[in-house]
Amino acid sequence: MISRSREVHIQGPLLPEGSDPGRRQRRVTSSLMPREPLEAIVLVGGRGTRLRPLTLSAPKPLLPTAGVPFLAHLLARAAAGGVTHVVLATCYKADMFAAHFGDGAAFGLSIDYVQEDVPLDTGGGIRNAAGSLRGTGSADPVVVLNSDVLSGHDLDAQVDLHVKADAAVTLHLVEVADPSRFGVVPADASGRVTAFLEKTPDPVTNRINAGCYVFRREVIGRIPAGRRVSVERETFPGLIGAGELVLGYHEPAYWLDVGTPQTFVRGSCDLVLGRLPGPAVPGPAGPSLLLAGAWVAADASVSGGTVVGAGASVGAGAIVDGSVLFDGAAVGAGAVVRDSILGRGAIVAPGAVLDEAMVGDGAYIGAGNELARGIRVWPNVRLEPTSVRFSSDV
What we know:
CATH architecture of the largest domain: Alpha-Beta Complex
Helix content: 10-25%
Largest sheet: 7 strands, mixed
Strand content: 25-35%
Radius of gyration: 22 Å
Number of helices: 7
Number of strands: 28
CATH class of the largest domain: Alpha Beta
Number of domains: 2
Strand order of the largest sheet: 5-4-1-6-9-8-10
């Protein structure tokens, strides 16, 4: 595979203190030189409890996001970043992944599937999946992606920095407005990570772990096998404590943790609107995305990056803004749906109002209901007319 013809600007020193300039370098950033195949492990084994009830029927990485399963966006971006072989580390509803993605040829990838019999956490999952990697070099870079994250950062540049710096691990770091909600990752002026700190009301930095790592292959081999291991609480602190080079790669690109209903909707809408260019989005950027067989009444309003799934419908005079309608969902005449998710086959009757609501597959929301403030309706539940309201005006 030939590197894309562009210059990659490396952040930080090429060889931070403690690196070995004699170690063989696998990749060089050059538009003229060939690149060796790059492999990735994608962690998809979580149960997605923060997105229930939608994840009762499908794992979170398979939920429809901007018209395709969320994982399709990660795979497309990985392929664009030079990855050629992916190992999916599965656990919850593992069989569904192969049914969706097969051998990966649609993405220009080769995909293998590894199932955990019991959840092994991040580090354990990486170690378990590593047995299906094809590379044999101890210094080979291996990309690890967390399937909770939507990111527009430059994976090429992160890998190049990792190899040139001879790091044990290179972490993508992002700055957030409220770092007290996360564990933070301080680094020195050279980019060397100095600690992993748990959530605190007074964080020492606003940079956090963004969920994309590049490991040296032999470092993965040192993670204990067959048991739960957290890279955040065990592997990374252990490497830092042993004096090994854990490097931070900071880039102010688009980044979003899509693990909550609010951020899941936002991520889907941002992809549809083009705020994050997505090669897997099945249509041009715009205010809405209508999939095959979707129907929207001429006087209905569908905006804000809304997706209307295959066979879904929006009735006369209805307003749907910044929402995700799964396949076969229906919004009745005059209904209002904002910042919400409707599961497969869910029905919102005429005149109902939803604002930041999540409605499970096959549920029915009768006329006069007003659902808001993060309310969740379980699959196949039927709310009769005017059963739930958040205001007294009926």
